[in-house]
Amino acid sequence: MIVQRRAVTAMLAAAVLLVTAGCSSDDGEDQAGGTPAPSSTSPGTSPSKETAEDAPPAKGSVKVVRTVAEGLNSPWGLAPLPEGGLLVSSRDEGTITLVDEKTGRKKQLGEVPGVSPAGEGGLLGIAISPDYASDHMIYAYFTSESDNRIVRMLYDPKKPSGEQLGAPDTILRGIPKGTNHNGGRLAFGPDKMLYATTGERYEGPLAQDKESLGGKILRMTPDGEPAPGNPFDDSPVYSYGHRNVQGVAWDAKQRLWASEFGQNTWDELNQIKPGGNYGWPDVEGKEGESGFIDPVAQWGVEEASPSGIAIAEGSVWMAGLRGKRLWRIPLKGTEVSADPQAFLTDEYGRLRTVVSAGGNKLWLTTSETDGRGTAESGDDKILELEVK
């Protein structure tokens, strides 16, 4: 029987954060923080026409349907295949594993060459080509000895287990690497362009330097070229002023949302606009300063340290590492329509990645074997959730 931590259901109340100083890591282990602040639109921002959309109920619910798989080592990226099965990247082993979502059986596809795991770096996000039916390409973001880079590999299921990944073709290199703050999430958007999140490797000014790939959300073609319509000429930079983004998702209106690690004070949920400056390192959280876009929601860092996000049933679902909980943030247009709610608090430990499984279901991965958790029997796991 799987050993579970004592379940605690936590409801969020608006409060004032008491800040203590400290230097944070990507996962927030050295962060200091307190209770979350109320959710609201950015100061001085007028409601958009999108707010006419119906809001989901103020209160939602989460049900853990089952444990899909267990015994995973440092799982980071999760990508469902069109034909069935879940691809899971191991940050520290540099491998990609196929998990049968019905039986939980695991089969290693292969090891990604060139991965150099250290600290929070290693094999991070993975994504499936929008033309997967014809090209069978898997995309991966990883830390090498010199940089962070994005590659694509042919997946050939007819080859023997462990040899099913082709040689990596690097489509983007030169993303700044560090012990921490490597970003790493990959996702294809509704426009079939590839989006990647990057960190500023503890060098805050990189986030404001539009010539640097650090501290950004990038948008590119499947070949790694700057995507048509990007806000800056001949550049993959889509938004900037980010400290370390690890979660991106699109809502029903194809608007992009992103979660971001704060430092000492606020973790953030942002609605991303092309060319937008999200403030780091000049501001953290909602400051209302001209020239910067404020987050739509913020949390004391002990409550979140957010990684992956997904959107289902009209809400953003945000996995918390240090917070050890799953946040529900109900949306109405580009605003948060009610106080966020916390679920699964301390029940499964650190939570890394959340992915839509269709309808009102989500896949959720734990992250207790990443060097900062307390691994128990069965860790790490993939859970199937029903949400509303």
Series of secondary-structure elements, N-terminal to C-terminal: EEEEEEHEEEEEHEEEEEEEEEEEEEE
Count, helices: 2
CATH topology: Neuraminidase
Largest sheet: 5 strands, antiparallel
β-strand amount: 35-45%
Gap between N and C termini: 28 Å
CATH domain class name: Mainly Beta
Q: What is the C-alpha radius of gyration, as a whole number of Å?
A: 19 Å
- Helical content band: under 10%
Number of structural units classed as domains: 1
Brief sketch in words of this structure:
With about 400 residues, the protein is mostly beta strands. It has helices at about 130-135, 205-210, and strands spanning about 60-70, 75-80, 85-90, 95-100, 105-110, 125-130, 135-145, 150-155, 170-175, 185-190, 195, 215-220, 235-240, 245-250, 255-260, 265-270, 295-300, 305-310, 315-320, 325-330, 335, 340-345, 350-355, 360-365, 380-385.
Question: What report would you give on this structure?
Answer:
Pfam families: GSDH. Residues 32-48 have a biased composition (Low complexity). This is PQQ-dependent sugar dehydrogenase. The protein has one domain (55-387): TolB, C-terminal domain (Neuraminidase, 6 Propeller), CATH 2.120.10. It is built from two helices and 25 strands. The chain has helices at 132-135, 205-208; strands at residues 62-69, 75-80, 86-90, 95-99, 106-111, 123-128, 137-143, 148-154, 169-175, 186-188, 194-197, 216-220, 237-240, 245-250, 256-260, 266-272, 297-300, 306-312, 315-320, 326-332, 335-336, 341-343, 351-356, 361-366, 382-387. The strands form six sheets. Strands 18, 19, 20, 21 and 22 form a five-stranded antiparallel β-sheet that branches. Strands 1-25-24-23 form a four-stranded antiparallel β-sheet, with no helix packed on it. The radius of gyration is 19 Å and the shape is globular. Residues 1-24 and 29-51 have low confidence and may be disordered.
